[in-house]
Amino acid sequence: MKHNILFVERKPFESVSIERVFDQFEKNITARRFEIERQKLPYGNSPIDILKNLLFFRPKPADIYHITGQVHYIALRLPKHKTVLTIHDLVFLHRRTGIRRYVLKKLFLDLPLRKLNFITAISQATKDEIVKYTNCDPAKIRVIENPIVDGLEPEPIKAFNEECPVILQVGTAATKNVLNLIRALDGVRCKLRIVGRIDAKINEALAESSVQFENIFNVGAKDMVEEYRNADIIAFCSTYEGFGLPIIEAQAMRKPVITSDISPLKEVASSGAFLADPDDVSSIRNGLLKIINESQYREALVENGTHNVLRFNPKKSATEYVEVYDLALSN
Description:
6-stranded parallel β-sheet; alpha/beta; 13 helices; 17% strand
């Protein structure tokens, strides 16, 4: 007999990294006594939408409910002993102040953690933050890292362009640190290709710099593979992340990576990336120039990254989630 797992997801959004990760889980879980269904919340992320979701969401019948991220508050509408919550990051706490932060912390963190028995975090750094802000028992939170997703085929490998390398920046939110990347590249012969909508501050920084750039958004999974393939370097010098999926995606595509020397990015990247201080423009610049100018170093990063991605096996992550589901079913 197979048990039904309902993935409870946010309303469709331009960023789909969470959905891609759980697409990968679904492929590896469905052969293990489980059938997966998905149900998206009817409304978005504004305060009124959150209230409407709490009032009007009607979950389908299921043996286990799994909130796959972002919409933590919907745990208040789901059964305590049958619900798993995955927390990706606590960026919402860092973007807000005052009463709004207080309310979001209650809805997205304090109340769901108080109610539910089964919590997972996608990195040790995220778990540590949850414990820091809630005083939750660490034993209640299990770390299950994101897996590498299917379809990342590096062949054919593009020769590195030493004359004018293409530097791919994935994401444009404030935490992605695009402004410091632009400052670091000023005067460097290259092309910066930015994935994600750019705001007025980024536009202004680009206009004031000499950086040649291109901007794209609404990029599908297959197109993103081509973006990695056509890039020479992947830049991901964020100031905050819950995990850092583009790091391992770039490594799987055999690309040199520069990322931040902060947790969890440095643990995810291991020895397969140059680790820069995200707040120090010269550190980012020096790392990029080292990758561009030192071919042996660059090739070592690629080889180390290729070995590193083996740690993020989808079957391993699926097995760890199955263990959580079995615990919930035993209740």
